[in-house]
Every structure is written in C-alpha cells, then in structure tokens.
Amino acid sequence: MFPSVAFRPVRLLIISVVLTAAATLVAGLGGHVMVGVFFGVGLLLGLLNALLVRRSVESITAKEHPLKSSMALNSASRLAIITIVGLIVAFIFRPAGLGVVFGLALFQVLLVASTALPVWKKLRSGAGSYSAGGDVLTVSEGTEVRSTSDD
Which candidate, 1, 30, 16, 34, places its Cα nearest to that of 143? Predict the structure, then answer.
C-alpha cells in the first residue's frame, strides 16, 4: 500500500471541518470565536499544502528522469509560502490570528497519522513480508520499503 493511497483528502477535509467547528465552539465559550475561525484557516492551509505536495510529486515523478533537487526546491518554496502566509495572518490579526499557526501544526499531525496508520495496520496484519538478510520489507507487489541501513 503506497502512502499516497492512504492519503484521503476528503476525509482530512471532513476532520478539519469538525475540528474547526469544535475549536470555534470552545473558543466562543471563552469569548474568542475568531481564534477558532483562524484555527480552521490553518487547517485548510495545511490541507492545501498536502494537495499541492501530491500534485507536485505526481508531476515530478511523471518525468523520465525526476530530479531530487527539483523536488527539494518545490518543497522548500511551497513550505516557505505557506509559512509566510500563516505568519502574516497571525501578525495582522494577533492575538486571534495565532490560531492559524496552531491549525497548521495540528494538520501536520493529522496528515502523518491519517497516512501512516493505514500503512502500519496493513504491515501489522501480515500483508507484507520481511527478509532479514536484505533488510527489505515488501509491502505490496513491486513496492519495497528499505531500512535505514541502506542509506
């Protein structure tokens, strides 16, 4: 199972909307509704970043000779833009705008968990096989996950 198969943007959108509603409700009870709203903006910026990552990976790997440097440059520029937008919103709308930064941070946790857990469950269920000699874990036909000893 590829991690890209485990990436479910619609599920992440629904989770983000539910978390935004909960954060807005809790922040509203404390008298700071806009913190919850900005938290939701941060979650949506994180989702936008994840969608752009997928699009970028698909376009770069579709090339005959994909370069790591183009992937690194693309990632660095995209992360810089998302971070700058988040910090500008946080600065302009401070203190409530800090919710954007917290939303971005929580989205990264959600993304890793929602992508890694299905892959981990698949591995734990015995779908993959492990060869101790070559430190290669075969997850599905033609897909290998190498250990750090290969680096």
Answer: 1
